[in-house]
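Ops channel
N.P.: pipeline sanity check, posting one input/output pair.
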């Protein structure tokens, strides 16, 4: 049985899609200023955009691209250009020379072939949640029109095209009593989330989203279409699942579904006077719970803003989020030690259909500006967690959302035979400590204006932060947050230093902002994979994409282990090492 979710979209007339002059040279030469200024610990201005020198495509070349594609082809100044390059992240945006709004895999092939012929680097964007950096120039493939979902209930699988978000898959699978291994936010895209591993609502019970993947449809840097499985190409299949950003453009993915129709979950919310007790109790509690229970702890010091609802305004809150696949009766027994902490601001634990699982975290649905870092930890003690809470709480120089995800369970196990297992790093981590800060006042271009925190409250106790990462945009640093970023980065570094004894790496899904511009960018790139996986992925990247066409990806594996002599002229710039997520 199948369910199809393909929303008809109005397309611009082929005759009028591209009649304007090709984009001209920007100040400083074709394609924008050469090179890039790395972010220091205290930059006074935003960093120079990610650039690559090239000759802008000619009108004739663009006309041929229009002829070969079904979706719109846009250049700066075209109606729809700004909307197409804009994603969920408001702090940064791509500024490409050309955008292809892909409607099918054939459009992706045509776009990559065109980019190769024109010497343009390629970035990919679906929803724009998980940002790492951005391109100024080049070609952007926007996949949001590729929105087909097909569920095979008998086989317990789903097939999702490149622009599909998790809410679509949850909705399509629910009538069959099935669920995907989605994240906390229904608006996050399936593909990039899964390529990064995917720590979801059911993660301790069923593992990473990447562990459920059956096949990947990929367009490579030489514009070939591959159907990749564990049997057809074990090395590439393993690389894509947890380390696949930058290896090509994924146009579709098939993955397994799990038999979950209902769960017991929600939030327990404690006020500031109970924070210390809640932190200690949560750490003790995670040592006792079964694999069927996935949880996280969030600490949020809400600003005193009139647009926030009264229960949030000016309050410091601890939110414990619960998702349990067992019975409600057993769930009540398991959470009793947490309720024993004391009176709650809110207690919303209940049995719910899985289709309502997004209400557990209540991630915001409105685009906003933010930056974030994280640490995967082998353990954690209460004193260190209290230290991080003190640094990021109400006395912090800027707002910071702290989230501690309890890992382990099925995530610590390989998703299949060793030759088919993915490249998700640091499976032995016990916790993921995530830090995220809004960037009030960050500009993302004249058309979007400044984000001043107006979307921090939507009536929900969990409405801060971009959720679980995954597909994002790269967005131009020249549009970015400026000096506010320095304050955020300094705070995050100090807080993460408090957990240094337990730190074993990072999760690529939870890196937000242009980390490729950091002085320690190479260390950040290596930290997302196990020590043996990083050179293996870098070698595969060099084989599949020797010219580094897909240079905008979060792990930075493309160039981190390649000597200058191994690189092409196009990627002998700081931009080649800059990670950008699709």
């Amino acid at each position: 049985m199948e369910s199809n979710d393909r929303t008809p979209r109005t397309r611009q007339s082929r005759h009028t899609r591209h009649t304007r002059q090709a984009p001209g040279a920007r100040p400083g030469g074709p394609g924008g200023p050469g090179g890039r200024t790395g972010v220091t610990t205290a930059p006074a201005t935003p960093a120079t955009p990610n650039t690559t020198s090239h000759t802008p495509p000619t009108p004739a070349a663009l006309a041929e691209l229009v002829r070969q594609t079904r979706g719109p082809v846009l250049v700066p100044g075209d109606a729809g250009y700004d909307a197409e390059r804009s994603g969920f992240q408001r702090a940064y945006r791509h500024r490409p020379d050309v955008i292809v709004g892909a409607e099918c895999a054939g459009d992706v092939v045509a776009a990559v072939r065109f980019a190769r012929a024109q010497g343009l680097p390629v970035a990919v964007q679906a929803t724009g949640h998980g940002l790492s950096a951005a391109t100024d120039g080049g070609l952007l493939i926007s996949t949001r029109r590729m929105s087909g979902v097909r569920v095979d209930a008998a086989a317990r699988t789903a097939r999702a095209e490149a622009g599909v978000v998790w809410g679509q898959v949850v909705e399509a699978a629910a009538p069959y009593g099935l669920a995907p291994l989605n994240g906390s936010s229904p608006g996050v895209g399936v593909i990039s989330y899964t390529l990064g591993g995917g720590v979801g609502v059911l993660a301790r019970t069923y593992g990473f989203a990447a562990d459920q993947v059956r096949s990947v449809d990929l367009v490579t840097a030489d514009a070939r279409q591959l159907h990749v499985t564990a049997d057809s190409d074990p090395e590439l299949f393993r690389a894509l699942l947890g380390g696949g950003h930058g290896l090509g453009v994924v146009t579709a993915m098939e993955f397994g579904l799990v038999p979950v129709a209902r769960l017991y979950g929600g939030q327990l919310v404690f006020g500031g006077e109970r924070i210390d007790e809640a932190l200690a109790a949560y750490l003790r509690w995670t040592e006792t719970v079964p694999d069927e229970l996935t949880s996280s702890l969030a600490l949020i010091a809400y600003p005193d803003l009139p647009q926030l609802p009264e229960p949030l305004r000016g309050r410091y809150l601890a939110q414990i989020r619960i998702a349990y696949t067992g019975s409600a009766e057993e769930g009540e027994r398991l959470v009793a030690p947490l309720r024993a902490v004391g009176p709650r601001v809110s207690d919303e634990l209940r049995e719910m259909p899985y289709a309502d699982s997004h209400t557990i975290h209540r991630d915001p649905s409105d685009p906003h500006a933010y930056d974030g870092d994280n640490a995967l930890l082998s353990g954690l003690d209460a004193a260190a967690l209290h230290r991080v809470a003190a640094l990021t709480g109400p006395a912090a120089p800027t707002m910071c959302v702290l989230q501690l995800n309890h890992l382990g369970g099925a995530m610590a196990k390989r998703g299949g035979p060793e030759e088919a297992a993915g490249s998700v790093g640091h499976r032995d981590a016990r916790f993921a400590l995530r830090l995220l800060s809004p960037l009030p006042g960050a500009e993302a271009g004249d058309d979007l204006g400044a984000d001043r925190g107006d979307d921090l409250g939507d009536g929900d106790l969990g409405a801060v932060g971009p959720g679980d990462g995954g597909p994002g945009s790269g967005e131009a640093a020249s549009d970015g947050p400026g000096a506010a970023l320095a304050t955020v980065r300094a705070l995050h570094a100090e807080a993460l230093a408090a957990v240094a004894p337990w730190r074993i790496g990072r999760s690529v899904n939870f890196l937000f902002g242009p980390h490729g511009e950091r002085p320690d960018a190479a260390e950040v790139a290596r930290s997302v994979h196990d020590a043996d996986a990083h050179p293996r992925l870098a070698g595969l990247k060099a084989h599949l994409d020797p010219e580094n066409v897909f240079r905008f990806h979060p792990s930075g594996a493309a160039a981190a282990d390649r000597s200058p002599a191994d690189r092409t002229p196009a990627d002998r710039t700081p931009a080649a090492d800059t990670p950008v997520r699709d």
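N.P.: looks fine end to end. The mean pLDDT is 81.
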